[in-house]
Design a protein that fits this description.
By secondary structure, the chain is α/β, with parallel strands linked by helices. The chain has 17 helices and 13 strands. It is globular and about 85 Å long.
């Protein structure tokens, strides 16, 4: 089956990928690096494709004339990807006129070198060139070993497919450089591919763990920011106000809050996508360490890939990813911690650290189910949906969400079979959320159900908090100078800077809260204060 797509670079500016997706484009191949540095549109394009469910590959236009130069180009591609997922290949773009003069032996060795670097990093490899290059320049050995994406279009190119020019070889054909696509200004290259690369690329456990570690390691040295700017730079605008790209990408409304847990979420999402990250972390997003510990088995001894949850002063307070274990000693990569070069006073960064487990009483380790990342990610987008007759794990997960929201899937419950009862439940949900009642569980239905599930769970958590307070579960008595997790919770609710120490600004803010909730304005949070806090949280989550 043919799949229609595009390839883009900075020449296309910053496309509106939501519009591109809606136009029917089913994949995109992105230029990743230029002659010097990263393509200026790559990060925008990669993120836009991922957010909108567009399968993605990359290409590198090569200027190399030696083996050493092409090895450097390949390594630059791998470094820029930093372990991030691709659906299609890393394509080596061979068309530079000076390369045409190279001997077949030299060019063959250069191709092998590029292949070796990108495949060692876990990516597929392919070659892009035009038909003339394929017929007259590409070494015979390369033609027999690698997949090719070939360009062929007429001099009077108008964006239409010219069947007479369709290559007889290759997995893909770039058939026009004069295409027009909604969401992109000006012309764009148009392509068809004959293979579906979006499934069947399973990884074993070691490969899955290494993908997480590779992404985490690439972030080492990132410094939190003083304000909501320069978020993508590792070191610019360094400060102590907890602004990071991790909050921006995962949960923007929490920007400027402590970010060790959301860093872990970000790494898993970069590695496997949101849906798989949600399964592996057993909730989404992971932003509060005790929540993770309540969902996972608490292992006493670490393994590589574990999520470490540090225990301090009676609480699980900090988290990171285990990267190495040797006897009693283990190594981590952590966000929102000190130790990186350039960290400002009271600020934090992404750092590599090591500890002796025997010196950390109470610290535990959560172990993700790595097999979840070796299975196909949920395929619900503009071109994929679930409907009557489908079956499997994805159907079961949908049924569980529907049942949780009160839509019955029949006496069999969440059995993984999309039958008449599940179709009825989907239609009921679609009616409740103002959608077309077609019984197909597509992207719009999924988004509406996900939102409803998140809101219900948040409300349940608020109810639990209020119940705990009303049942007189002991919560800290907070006044000026008080310290601890309870102070951080209160600061978060007040919107003051979360420092864990109740200071003059917090007292002032809490007095204002007391005034608004008709309490005595003494700036002290006792039992009545906590009740008012719980009521406020509950009211603002409904």
């Amino acid at each position: 089956m043919e799949r229609k797509g595009i390839d883009v670079s900075s020449w296309q500016g910053k496309p509106d990928w939501e519009k591109v997706k809606a136009s029917g484009i089913s994949f995109a191949i992105l230029r990743i690096t230029e002659k010097n540095g990263v393509d200026t549109s790559f990060e925008h394009n990669y993120k836009g494709c991922k957010v909108n469910g567009i399968p993605v590959g990359v290409y590198k236009y090569s200027y190399a004339l030696t083996v050493a130069e092409i090895q450097k180009e390949a390594q630059s591609v791998v470094d820029t990807l930093a372990g991030r997922g691709l659906d299609f290949q890393v394509f080596l773009d061979l068309e530079h006129e000076s390369q045409r003069k190279l001997s077949e032996s030299t060019l063959n060795t250069m191709i092998k070198t590029f292949w070796s670097v990108v495949t060692a990093a876990g990516y597929r490899f392919g070659i892009y060139c035009n038909v003339d290059w394929y017929n007259n320049v590409i070494p015979a050995e390369a033609k027999s070993k690698y997949e090719f994406w070939l360009a062929a279009y007429p001099a009077n190119d108008n964006g239409a497919i010219q069947e007479r020019l369709r290559p007889s070889v290759g997995v893909g054909w770039q058939y026009s450089s004069k295409g027009t696509v909604s969401g992109i200004s000006g012309n764009v290259d148009l392509d068809v591919f004959y293979k579906d690369y979006t499934g069947g690329n399973e990884m074993n456990k070691t490969e899955v763990i290494n993908k997480v570690l590779s992404i985490a390691k690439a972030e080492v040295g990132y410094l939190e920011k003083a304000s909501n700017s320069s978020l993508d730079s590792k070191t610019a605008n360094a400060g102590s106000n907890n602004y990071t790209k991790y909050w921006r990408d995962i949960y923007p409304s929490y920007q400027a809050q402590p970010w060790c847990a959301v860093f872990v979420t970000w790494v898993f999402q970069q590695a496997f996508g949101k849906e798989t990250a949600k399964k592996m972390l057993k909730h989404y997003p992971y932003v509060y360490v005790p929540t993770l510990m309540n969902l996972f088995t608490r292992y006493a001894n670490p393994e590589v890939g574990d999520i470490v949850c540090f225990y301090r002063n009676g609480e699980f307070t900090h988290t990171g990813i285990v990267t190495k274990v040797s006897g009693d000693r283990f190594w981590t990569i952590e966000g929102n911690t000190s130790g990186a070069s350039g960290v400002v006073a009271n600020g934090g960064g992404v750092c590599e650290k090591s500890y002796y487990n025997s010196q950390l009483p109470g610290t535990k380790f959560a172990r993700p189910d790595w097999s979840l990342a070796a299975t196909e990610e949920l395929k619900i987008d503009a071109n994929h949906w679930l409907e009557k007759g489908d079956s499997g794990t994805l159907v079961k997960e949908v049924q569980e969400d529907l049942i949780y929201l009160g839509f019955s899937c029949g006496s069999s419950g969440a059995d993984g079979v999309f039958g008449a009862d599940t179709e009825k439940a989907v239609k009921a949900a679609q009616k409740a959320y103002g959608l077309t009642q077609d019984g197909q569980y597509g992207l719009k239905t999924k988004n509406a159900v996900d939102k409803a599930v998140e809101e219900k769970r948040r409300e349940e958590e608020a109810n639990k908090l209020q119940t705990a307070i009303l049942d007189k579960v002991t919560l800290p008595y907070i006044k000026k100078g008080s310290k601890g997790v309870g102070v951080s919770m209160l600061q978060t609710m007040l919107g003051t800077k979360v420092t864990g120490t109740f200071n003059d600004d917090d007292v002032k803010a809490f007095k204002a809260f007391q005034k608004n909730t008709k309490q005595s304005q003494d700036g002290i949070c006792g039992e009545n204060g906590w009740k008012a806090v719980a009521a406020h949280i509950l009211a603002n989550t409904k």
